[in-house]
Amino acid sequence: MIRYKKLGYVELNVSNLDRSRRFYEDVVGLEFVGERSDGAVLFRCDDEDPRSVVLHQQQPAGFKSVGWQLEDEAQFELLHRRLRDARVPYEELGSAQCELRQAIRVTRTTEPHSHAALEFFTADGPRPDKPFAVTHTKIQRLGHVVWSVPHEVESIAFFREVLNFRESDSIGEIMTFMRPFPSPFHHGIGVGKGPKRVIHHLNFMVSEIDDIGKAQNRMRKHDVPIVFGPGRHPASTSVFFYFLEPDGMTLEYSFGMEEFTEVDPRKPRTLPMAAESIDEWGSVRDPRMGQTGDIEEARIGAPA
Ligand SMILES: CC(C)C(=O)/C=C/C(C(=O)O)=C(/O)C(=O)O
Ligand SMILES: [Fe+2]
Fold first, then answer.
1. Which of 9, 185, 205, 277 lies most in the core, judged by the most C-beta atoms within 10 Å?
2. VOC domain spans which residues (predicted)?
């Protein structure tokens, strides 16, 4: 059984890197780390990881890749065996690509139904020498990424059966939340049903309810579209707040989240497809939520 440490990074394509750099730093509250030799811009949002978000100047804007940190080196053998058995191609990245990702070892594959790039890595180096520089928002960590895809049933099965992600809950047939085993957090990924392949949202978990309240006023001040919330998700129990970044992709702050035990966790539930299953507080979703941000079509063997 493949064992994961956590969600490590998400890479996004943006149409105007300077504009997005300012937004993710000043409005979202990520810490700018630097620019990579390939021009990508790195941000961090916790004390442990050297980078959690990587932005690339590339059109169309959207999702580029996600990196899952494996528990240790031994997990690569299990991962490769599972991918081979499922006849899913993968590649091990060379040292230059590992270095760009500040990783020791990286295996890259694509989710066969959405063609989204998935990376699996180990990074046993020292923690950054300085704690994450909090500005206005006490971000705890990169929380989860959610996609909408046409073949969601097959994607969910791939995460479950090949990658050893565990289902936490579903909402009707429109959304399933999964955690990379044995990560305790309710979900590290959400896979939703949709007509096109888009990133539905990217989540940052925050430390205080005040971070949510302050965000509402900050977004209004900066004319940032608020697309849902504040509210409370009954599935994970988190208090949420969704807004749009400059290319129209949806970002979420959330406070609090159910945690699962590794041994004998509660069973996954299916909540009815109803407004009350999405928000206990009754806020209304803006139709722009989760609509923008193509999933880049990744190919194994092409430049990563
Ligand atoms: C907006 C979707 C359909 C929803 O219900 C979200 C629930 C949760 C949660 O329970 O925490 C999310 O965070 C999520 O979808 O990402
Ligand atoms: Fe979310």
1. 9
2. 6-123, 141-256
pLDDT tens profile 12-52: 999 999 999 999 999 999 999 999 999 999 999 999 999 99
CATH domain 4-131 topology: 2,3-Dihydroxybiphenyl 1,2-Dioxygenase; domain 1 (3.10.180)
Fold of 139-294: 2,3-Dihydroxybiphenyl 1,2-Dioxygenase; domain 1 (3.10.180)
- Which three-class secondary structure state does DSSP give residue 23? helix
CB 283 within 8 A of CB 276: no
pLDDT in tens, 50-72: 999 999 999 999 999 999 999 99
For the record, the structure tokens of 273 come out as: 């497809």
Burial of 225 (0-12, 13-18, 19+ CB in 10 A): middle
pLDDT at 303 over 90: no
Q: Which residue, among 250, 252, 255, 237, has the nearest Cα to 186 in the 3D structure?
A: 237
| DSSP 3-state of 155 | helix
Task: Report the residue among 233, 237, 239, 257 best suited for mutation to probe ligand 1: largest number of ligand atoms under 8 A from its CB.
Answer: 233
Whether 67 lines ligand 1, by a CB cut-off of 6 Å, is no
- Rounded Cα distance between 96 and 176, Å, is 36
> HEC string of 55-94?
EEECCCCEEEEEEEEECCCCHHHHHHHHHHHCCCCEEECC
Ligand 1 atom with the smallest distance to the CA of 277 is: 5
pLDDT score, position 281: 98
What is the per-residue pLDDT across 223-275, written as a single tens digit (0 to 9) for each? 999 999 999 999 999 999 999 999 999 999 999 999 999 999 999 999 999 99
Chain mean pLDDT for the chain: 97
Q: Which residues surround ligand 2, an ion (CB under 5 A)?
A: 203, 252
Residue 233 CA: nearest ligand 1 atom is 10
